[in-house]
Amino acid sequence: MSKVLLVLNHPNYKDSFANKIVVEKLKSLIPDIEIDHIDTLYPEGKIDVKAEQEKLLKADTVIFQFPVYWFKSPYFLSKWIEDVFTHGFAYGSNGYKLEGKKLIISITLGGEEEEFKGNMALDRLISPFEATAIYTKMKFAGFTYTLDIPFTIKDTPDLAKTKKELLEKQAEKIVSMIKN
Length: 180
What we know:
By secondary structure, the chain is of the alpha/beta class. It contains 6 helices and 5 strands, in the order E-H-E-H-H-E-H-E-H-E-H. The N and C termini lie close together (about 10 Å).
């Protein structure tokens, strides 16, 4: 399998239910996956741009893993992209160093499926990431998600078991997206 970099942004990962399951399943399916938990690496918000760019250069596939906050990624992933995807590195007259690398978006959401129809369709929420891939000449390999993860899920064992299975399938879908 290709070299995979998972860029994880979850401001409260220690209490996460959904993102932890996806990440742990990916670790079991891709033992050499590099996990770049940017919240932990840069708790003060000062990103080591060169180090992050080196990780991207080594990767064949980049996955952004995050919970959706107010119809977008958490703030720090946006900051990370703004800081790391610089002119002359990710785009511009000095080259497109990410060209040809796959980008996969993996998200979790608290909302129910009915909430993400029409003007709120998930592909609209993901479109800035697809545009980023196009602009940097990456290959947008798509996105995967699990909906309806309530904050109280740990208090409902039957629902937690069902959602855990769906989240593990989300990780399995990521692996198939990497291979295709």
